[in-house]
Write a structure and sequence with these properties.
This protein is an alpha+beta fold and about 290 residues long. The protein has two domains: about 45 residues; about 240 residues, no CATH class. Helix content is about 15%, strand content about 40%. It is built from four helices and 13 strands. A five-stranded mixed β-barrel has the order 1-2-4-6-5. A hairpin with a 6-residue loop joins strand 11 and strand 12. The protein is globular, with a radius of gyration of 24 Å.
């Protein structure tokens, strides 16, 4: 079989252009750990966690059998009122981004209620609740969807001034559900219909959303993170819970506006170019 130069050129062109239209995602790596708070530095907005276990997506595994090398993790925490609640010695579940050999960024920190229990119920959380592994005490569960502000986007991220928050509680066939759309700075209070003496208070501090909702197509870049303060409190005491916005999300989007978004993966493009050259050389035998 022979290939003429025209067909060969088209073949090589298709291979090379594929490196541009199928870019590698720039999603930020997330790691979830369970451990103990060993140091709090409020002036630097940082906490240090000594990690005992890692969440592998299905179960907790001992730190010693993972590829991570730094068990003592220091990082900045989500903005809000975390320092009002958390103390040295608390057992926590937390998700970080960044190199674990350096200073990390905690995108979610949750305090564990009754840490000696195998159920590992949570009592408080800060940051992005989509990273939570365990439910809250009394089996309260939380999910959310942010609503993008399409007038304030950059690259893959938009600011989100509104979030649709869903809180549920229940076991097996009994499951009570409440969904409400709240604005940044507002709070949703979920009281148990079962008559327990606690309620879950969810404050939406600030948020991000994927820009695909505004542009209609995906853009290479980091995934959105949002910041919530979530607290299990005694019924009637919700007025004690406050949400203090920080500037972290605004800074993230502003920074994205000053740095050009990558349109392709250099490694993928190089791979396509090499393949194209190899095909061209091989095809010369048949021309």
């Amino acid at each position: 079989m022979k290939l003429n130069r025209f067909n060969l050129g088209i073949f090589v062109f298709v291979i090379l252009i594929s490196a541009y239209i199928f870019p590698v995602s720039a999603v930020i790596q997330e790691t979830t750990v369970s451990g103990e708070v060993t140091k709090i530095t409020e002036a630097e907005n940082e906490i240090t966690i000594y990690a005992n276990e890692i969440w592998n997506g299905e179960s907790w595994v001992m730190y010693s059998v993972t590829s991570l090398t730094n068990q003592k993790l220091k990082g900045g925490v989500p903005g809000g009122n975390i320092f009002k609640y958390i103390n040295v010695g608390d057992t926590v579940q937390a998700t970080f981004t960044g190199d674990e050999r350096d200073v990390v960024t905690w995108v979610t920190v949750a305090r564990v209620e009754l840490p000696d229990s195998s159920s590992r119920f949570l009592s408080d959380s800060w940051g992005d609740p989509s990273n939570l592994v365990s439910p809250f005490f009394n089996n309260f569960k939380l999910s959310y969807e942010t609503i993008a502000d399409c007038s304030d986007c950059s690259g893959s991220l938009c600011l989100a001034k509104t979030a649709e928050v869903t809180v549920s509680q229940g076991w097996e066939e009994k499951n009570y559900l409440q969904t409400k759309t709240i604005n940044a700075g507002e709070t949703l209070i979920f009281s148990s219909p079962e008559g327990c003496h606690s309620e879950l208070v969810v404050s939406f501090v600030e948020g991000q959303a994927d820009s695909v909702a505004c542009s209609g197509y995906g853009v290479t870049g980091p995934q959105p993170f949002s910041n919530f303060g979530v607290h299990l409190v005694q019924k009637g005491s919700a007025t004690e819970v406050t949400a203090t916005p920080s500037s972290s999300v605004t800074e993230d989007v502003t920074q994205a506006a000053t740095e050009p978004e990558p349109t392709q993966s250099p490694g993928f493009a190089m791979f396509g170019a090499v393949i194209g050259i190899m095909v061209a050389l091989y095809a010369r035998k048949f021309i």
